[in-house]
Amino acid sequence: MWMVRFGGAGHSYEIAKRISEKGLLLGIDRDQEAICVAKERLKQFPNVKFVYDNHDRIKQILQNLEISAVDGILLDLGVSSYQLDEEERGFSYMLDSDLDMRMDKSARLTAKDVVNQYTEEKLANVIYEYGEERFSRRIAKNICEYRVQKSIETTAELVQIIEKSVPRKKGEGHPAKRTFQAIRIEVNDEIKPLQATILDSIDVLKPQGRLCVITFHSLEDRAVKKAFMEAEGRCTCPNDLPYCSCGCKHLGKIITKKPILPTKKEMEQNSRSKSAKLRIFEKIG
After folding, report:
1. Topology given in CATH for the domain delimited by 89-188
2. Dist CA 224 CA 244 (whole Å)
3. Which member of 18, 68, 126, 207 lies 3.0 to 4.6 Å from 285 by CB, making a disulfide possible if both were Cys?
């Protein structure tokens, strides 16, 4: 049995089809609309179970389904093309819509809350930490000055503030990209639980089972790489010590010493795949 998190830029669907032809496929997503789309795309396969939940709760999900272990897991992280293209979801800086950015529409925190309620310092820290935006303090300052007059309701309003805060240089892309990424990550708590999720995913694999993770930006990739290294285990004891005393645990091995990148053909067919990186870990037997 394989478990797939439906997300990212659509990579998971083709893989999901192949898996579902051979065994039981468990599809998980916290976006109810993504579940509906997946059900439609995979309706010809009877051996697929769909779960509306967060992949961070993988152990609880499998326990509820009375599944002790799985053969493999694919985590397709990040925001999906479907979410970006749906105007009313508020994920895109290219579309004018209400500030929302929730992957799970039942969640309480929205992008509008972050932008209008966070202190200037907290807002700047979020934009810097999750967006790696060097103009984070200027953006936060201008957001707070703007909202004194009125609350920021739409993506267009936020983009306008960011554009006035960030010097635009040729070849650097849209100035709002990093800030929108940061706010989205904050709203959906995408980074903080990721390392624990990776370790939990490895724990529920069968021997020789593999965890495959597709990331779309450096923060995700660094978190996955760090978790994989921790799971592989690296003893720090002196070489002359006859036993290990550092508490190192060897859960398996990293299959991809360097991430697998999309091919030129895939990037031509799907421009959003350009930033994708695939890392694979195999559980010890």
Report:
1. DNA polymerase; domain 1 (1.10.150)
2. 25
3. 207
Quote the tokens at residue 192. Answer: 């903080």
How far is 105 from 190, CA to CA, in rounded Å?
A: 15
At 257, phi and psi to the nearest 5?
A: -65, -35
CA distance 110 to 98: 10
Top CATH class of 2-78+191-283 equals alpha beta
- For residue 113, which phi and psi values (nearest 5 degrees)? -65, -45
Greatest CA separation for the chain? 68
- Cα separations (Å) of 139 from 29, 135, 164, 177? 32, 6, 8, 13
Q: What are the boundaries of each domain within the chain?
A: 2-78+191-283, 89-188
Quick one: 236 exposed, middle or buried, by C-beta within 10 A (0-12, 13-18, 19+)? exposed
Q: Label residues 191-214 b or e (16+ Cβ within 10 Å = b).
A: beebbebbbbbbebbeeebbbbbb
Chain position carrying tokens 């091995």: 253
pTM for the whole structure: 0.87
* pLDDT tens for the chain, residues 1 to 285: 666 665 544 455 566 666 666 678 898 999 998 888 888 888 888 888 999 999 999 999 999 999 999 999 999 898 887 788 888 899 999 999 999 999 999 999 999 999 999 999 999 999 999 999 999 999 999 999 999 999 999 999 999 999 999 998 777 789 999 999 999 999 999 999 999 999 999 999 999 999 999 999 999 999 999 999 999 987 767 777 777 776 777 899 999 999 999 999 988 988 888 889 999 999 997
Distance CA 184, CA 99 (A): 10
What distance in Å separates the CA atoms of residue 171 and residue 176, rounded to the nearest whole number? Answer: 14
Of 42, 56, 25, 152, residue with least CA distance to 97 = 152
